Amino acid sequence: MKFLYYTYYKMYHFFIKISDDFLNDVKPFALIFGLETILFLDLLTWFCYFLNTRLILSKLEFIAIFGTLGAINIYIFLFKNKWKQYSHEFEKYSKNKRILWNSIILVIIIIAFFLIFFSIWMLNKVGYIPEYHPQNSNDYDFKN
């Protein structure tokens, strides 16, 4: 849990350096929620790929899953600003410890964005993304 608070803390201070406005609490929350969403969808993609199955979520299931994830994140980060209890501890970290934690955060972000492209490739293999062959299809004929 402390890792998530540290991630929020670093993103919070990053966004303050860029622009100090009333959305400072929401920006890191949105970024962390986005990364968690990417990682969760990647896990679903791997599940479908390795089990050679298709998983089709209804709108209600999709809203329930990500609504629950969002509610958990709101409770963890925004409810009573629990992450701020650790901010004094994070400020006292040694330079080496900060470099280590920042490196871990950066690696996770890079992996999350790499996984987007990997998941698109896997979705294509499973058959979620149909291959487009313009010579075989008139679906995208814009001449008319």
Short description:
This protein is an all-alpha fold and 144 residues long. The chain contains five helices and no strands.
Mean pLDDT reading: 80
Per the principal axes of the C-alpha atoms, what is the gross shape?
globular
How many helix segments? Answer: 5
Secondary structure class reads mainly alpha
Low-confidence stretches: 139-144
Question: What is the percent of helical residues?
Answer: 55-70%
- Quaternary structure type: single chain
| Biggest beta sheet attributes | none
Strand share of the residues? under 5%
Give the termini separation.
58 Å
What's the helix-strand series?
Answer: HHHHH
Report the radius of gyration as a whole number of Å. Answer: 20 Å
Task: Report the strand count.
Answer: 0
Explain what the structure shows.
- With 144 residues, the protein is mainly α.
- Helix content is 69%, strand content 0%.
- The protein has helices at residues 2-18, 26-50, 59-78, 87-91, 95-126.
- α1 (2-18) packs across α2 (26-50), α2 crosses α3 (59-78) and α2 crosses α5 (95-126).
- It starts with a helix and ends in an 18-residue tail after the last helix.
- Residues 139-144 have low confidence and may be disordered.
